[in-house]
Amino acid sequence: MYFLIKPLGSSAFKWGGVSSILISGAVNTGYYEPVPAPSTIYGFLKYAYIIMGIGSDAPEFSGPYFYAKGKESEAICVHSYPSGLLCRIQGEMCLFKIKEEQFEHRIGIALDRKQKITKEGYVYMQKMLDLSFISKEILGEEPENYGVMINVLDDSAEKLKNFVGPFGGESRPAKVYSVETVLAIKKQNGNAVMPKLTYLKMKKKRSSLIKYL
């Protein structure tokens, strides 16, 4: 059962990080990517299952994938580290790389959740992405739909439709939609099968298929 997790605004997907003590205090930086880590998906699903009364743990799933659909084209992508998306667009394969300037750099101050006050001298930086903008660059047109797609292997997940919950860095809200895509619902023995995204099917040289957003 395929679902689309659509952030309701810019998102931050951190895949690791380091801390350094500077004159201004402890600044938290990290490695940010265009899709969330599987552990982020697990945490989101577990939270949703508990809140919705479906279960006490996350179900088995595959993904995440980046999905975008416009009037004329449709794309499904897998993560290509660092800062890349390997996409299948209408049968063609392309590798998209995201430039550093495409990220939204935001500075914040850490909070002491117990005392409900800020932690003096402790600041952090988040790098966020507008997935609608990334989708537009990949498709070459305004997207009608986009987000992080997953395949949940549990019939009870049907109840997740329209769920809104915290997703990614800073717990930004995201909404869950059911999604059907030509690329994802090819049938094999009655089951939906995700296409294999592989360089072996490329008709052009890899160097000519790398595009910078």
Q: How much of the residues is beta strand, in percent?
A: over 45%
| Gyration radius over CA | 18 Å
Number of structural domains: 1
Q: What structural class should be given to the helix and strand makeup? A: mainly beta
Give the low-confidence spans.
Answer: 195-213
**How are strands sequenced across the largest beta sheet?**
11-12-1-10-4-5-6-7-15
Task: Please report the distance between the alpha carbons of the first and last residues.
Answer: 31 Å
Number of helices: 2
Major sheet size, sense and barrel closure: 9 strands, mixed
Give the overall pLDDT as a whole number.
79
The level of helicity is 10-25%
Number of strands: 15
Gross morphology is: globular
Q: What's the SSE pattern?
A: EEEHEEEEEEHEEEEEE
Description:
The structure is a single chain. The relative contact order is 0.27. Residues 195-213 have low confidence and may be disordered. Helix content is 11%, strand content 47%. The protein has one domain (2-212). It has 2 helices and 15 strands.
Summary tags:
213 residues, mainly beta, 4-stranded mixed beta sheet, 11% helix, 47% strand, globular, disordered C terminus
Short description:
With 213 residues, the protein is mainly beta. It has 2 helices and 15 strands. The C terminus is likely disordered.
